[in-house]
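Supplementary Methods S3. Input chains for the assembly prediction are listed below.
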Amino acid sequence: MTLARRIIPCLDVDGGRVVKGIEFEKLRDMGGPEAHAARYNREGADELVVLDISASRDGRATFLETIERVARQLNIPLTAGGGIRKLEDGVAVTRAGADKITVNTAAVERPDLISELSQQFGSQAVVLSMDVKRTGGKWEIYIRGGRDATGLDAIAWAQEGAARGAGEILLTSIDRDGTCSGFDCELTAAIASAVRVPVIASGGAQTFEDFLAVFSEGRADAALAASIFHTETHSIGALKKFLAERDVPIRLSR
Amino acid sequence: MKISIVDYGAGNLPSVERAFQGLGVETERAATPEQIASARVIVLPGVGHFAAFVDGLETRSLTSLLRAAHEAGTPILGICLGLQALFTSSEEAPGKQGLGFLSGAIRLLPSTVKSPHIGWNQLRRVHEGALLRGIADDAFFYFAHSYAALGDGAPTAAVCDHGVSFAAVIEQRNLFGVQFHPEKSGEVGARVLRNFVEFVQ
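Predicted structure tokens for the full assembly:
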């Protein structure tokens, strides 16, 4: 009886379409979110994340509609985020069908947001998303889609977020994101050993071996990836079988 | 048959509704005493805080009606926090009273493991029950919680381990509870709900 490591595909959406980001900048249209969601649900994804990467420019109504449409395709948990700035935003995305809410920039600017959301929905529904870049000898938190440095130390911020009621940490390596050079296992292990809440590793996944490494060396509880699953280069089923054969505890769908 | 899903003001009702509707079962959102009083089958969904749950029931004057329904033998299924609310109390909200259909207190998971317990885990059957009928022994279910029924007084049909053994499935005559989220547990979860529906039909 073991808690399985999770494989979580992520849909970055902009104006109701799935897009792919390369190092947080260039975007490429990857199709409609519902078809992706239905396929992942069928292929054995353990959860799904939908991020509104256009939050600052685009209307929220479009994103809420996307969440509703995606949620209807799923019988697995759905996490939604991007532009969650206040409690009401959290209420809106959960009403639309999200089980969990991720916060990022707004939580750095106003850490009470984490406490407010966890009091309303419970810790298990609040995911603190952190975009981290290696600067000098330390790991620093960046906000606004990885554009602005904050001076915050990633380990200290992870601990504060968990203390304020975040129930999971979604850890993205900006250095690795979209580069296909593998997860940052050193960063992931450092965060995973500094907090009691589960850590979801993100950024840089390319090969099945990358996932194996982030679960072993990186001590991740879950691994998230977007583009490699969208293009059907890798099926989730094949990845999970690969990991299970290497003794990673995995839920295989039957 | 219609299933009355208790709407206490929070919780993710749509996914529970969709899961039952996917089985061809009619549902209603029950938020008034009259709806609880006339309910044939009751589902207590729940996410969030124990206090918000029991206060939400109390504010809507549903608590005593739920107790009456339980005494009258109306089938009840508690999901996640809904299972926890079947007990007397919870460490999450000292001083708050649960429904008290089952004796004992809900406790915090131990500090030796990752918490919240989030993700897919397996069960160990304790006795043969209705909810897990036809489901493989090694099947996975989706959990998302920090508190659990750790005591051994409960009518436990299956347990899960996360640092400690806790009740994952409870069955006692017409009273059912699952600590995992069947509505989020894929095909296996849908089978649990179908087993419940078949039992109460």
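The mean pLDDT of chain A is 91. The longest helix of chain A spans residues 60-71.
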